[in-house]
Every structure is written in structure tokens, then in C-alpha cells.
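Aim 2 progress update. The chain analyzed this quarter is reproduced below.
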Amino acid sequence: MDKGIAGVTALGFGLSEYIKMFGLTEHELNMRILDCRAGASSFTSDMYKEKKLVTACDPLYQLPVDELKKLVNHASEELKTTFKEGTEKFSILPEKAQEYLNLIESGTESFFSDFEIGLSEGRYCYDSLPTLSFRDGQFGLALVCHYLFTFSEQLSLSYHVASIEELVRVANEVRIFPLVTTKGQLSPYVGEVVAMLQSLSYGVEIRGVEYELQKQGNAMLRIWAPECQVSSYQAT
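Predicted C-alpha cells:
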């Protein structure tokens, strides 16, 4: 686990937010999806209720449930203090602060209602970037929410590139949101990562999305390997 950011990465979002963040269509929601560094996101539990196929991975899932709950609760309280004090530790649009805290509370409850049984049934696993245990092309779509680019100060450029290459190995397409850091600034890695991926013949697109939690944080990065066939990854 990454020191210093484990608590923040434990906080997550739900299905309705993911749809907006990643521009997900109904067709894409029916794919086999990997939610990487998912934390206490309710996306997997929300999708499971809809009989969709999602696997969430995060090294935090190795923790005993009680410890994971303490970590999530502590991170939530720290975030409340950060918003109240108005520090630049985590940039957020002022009008979105309470909405975000409400989402964390409801999403966390949904996550933990599903986590233990989901872990035993394989919906949650311990995998951690930049090395994943999944098969080549096991997923139609891999999503990374508020991790890569968000923590550019803590995670190196080489880590970003290695992680994205690994994600493209296991998924037909990768989407990363947002492209700004915790301080609300465009990640200095975006241009270099795009250039390196293009040099490796990956398809790359920066696409605007409907969701904006941070100022200018309304875009995602799409990456896909040559000759990908999205339709072959439909859930059955």
C-alpha cells in the first residue's frame, strides 16, 4: 500500500457518479469491468444489484474489515476538517463539498454491506498496480478513479506508465478520471504519458465528461490497444 495516501484512496463513489465521470453508456455497463484502486466505492455493489459484472481491486482489501472501516471513517473525518478549514490539501468546488461528503457516507454503507460476501465470491480482490494477476484481455473496460494523475506528487511517471500498460494488458480499454491532482492542477504527467503511449502505438483520447468535483477536473483519459474488439467482452 502507498504510504501517505491510503486513507484518501479508501474513499469512493457510486454507480451514478461513475457513469458521469467515465461517460459510460448502457453498452459499456454490460461489459466485464475492472474497478482498479476502488477503495470503499459502492460501484461494484451497485452494479452487482443490477446483475452486472464488476471486479474491484485494491490492496486495502487485505485489511481486516474492522481496520478497513476505521481507515475509511478516519479519512472521511479528515476530509471534513480539510473542507472546513479551506486548505489546499484537497481542492474541491465549494458547492460540491457537502454533496461529496454525503456521497461518501451513503457509498461507504453500501460498500460494506457487500464487501465480506463479495470478497468470498471474488467481486473484490487484493491486486495492486503496477502488477495485476488477471488474464490478458480478461475485461472489456478498466476504470481508475481518483488515483493515477490525482496523486502525481506521490506516484512517479514510470509508475503511471507501467500501471497503464498493465491495465491495457488486462482490459480492452482503460479510462482514468480525473486528470488533475489533489490540489486541482493539471497533472504534469498527462502530456508525457500521452506521448509515451502514442509512441507505443496505443490509442489515446482526452475526453470531456459531465462530472466536475474539482475545478477543471472534468476530463478523462481513454487508452486502448490496437485491434481491440469491445463487443467480444459483453457480460452474459
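The first strand starts at residue 33 and ends at 36. The chain has one domain: 6-233. These observations will guide the mutagenesis experiments scheduled for the next reporting period.
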